[in-house]
Amino acid sequence: MQPIIVAIAxxxxxxxxxxxxxxxxxxxxxxxxxxxxxxxxxPQANLTATLFPHERRDYKxxxxxxxxxxxKALLDEAIVETTTKHLDLIPSHIDLFxxxxxxxxxxxxxxGFDAAFKKSALLSGYDIVLIDxxxxxxxxxxxxxxxxxxxxxxxxxxxxxxxxGLRSLQNKITQVNVVKTEPGKKTELLGYLLTRCDMRTNxxxxxxxxxxxxxxxxxxxxxxxxxxxxGKAIMFNKTIFQxxxxxxxxxxxxxxxxxxxxxIANMSKKVAASEVExxxxxxxxxxxxxxx
Length: 292
Known about the structure:
CATH class: Alpha Beta
CATH topology: Rossmann fold
Oligomer: single chain
Low-confidence stretches: 281-292
Strand content: 15-25%
Order of helices and strands: EHEHHEEHHEHEHEHEHHH
CATH superfamily: P-loop containing nucleotide triphosphate hydrolases
Helix content: 40-55%
Largest sheet: 8 strands, mixed
Structural class: alpha/beta
């Protein structure tokens, strides 16, 4: 049985995308019942810096997603065990930047990740695959969305411009779904995730209200609060659970992990029962979300 693939996607930087990928993966894996594989699809490799077990292995010579996309290695050869039990990593590398130019105008510009997953003999050993997308709408974002069953979209509640451009991302998902012709395999929105949230500020209050009023249940109930422990965790290449288990960030990502698993289970049952193929982003007026 193949795992559920979830892309964590936004084309804006500074919204906690990579923080979410690392800590959501760790939160799910900590239950001990779910095996998680995280794919770092961002050439900046920030997720790799957080999760790669440098004290156990030397990064030099490590097979990464760059070699996989260059057809020089299989996905299975790049899998690394992290220091969190039941959580493994496909690391990235700055060389992945070069691959974008090489694969443009080839099938791998859209199908590269999907093809690599299908060739994997080890992928069936995981329950969930999380893809940390690059913060743009380019080739590796397209690859991630095509391979994914679901998408999580982080929205920074502390940024007055955080809601700008959501329509572009929705359009990108819709474009990818046009190409995905296999029945029941469309990429669906799992939810919008409010991050960096400090409800003491008017900006956060406005963004939270706008997002919930417009998208309703499509917004996760869990909110990721601002927490200085995230910065400390990043500095020491740790997840929030390894840095400070009592931090509000650990509580929030633990809650998000449970909510994500529940949503996936409910949506999978609904799709299986109705065989409905929802199109992401058509009936929700993003223009109403503009905050000035």
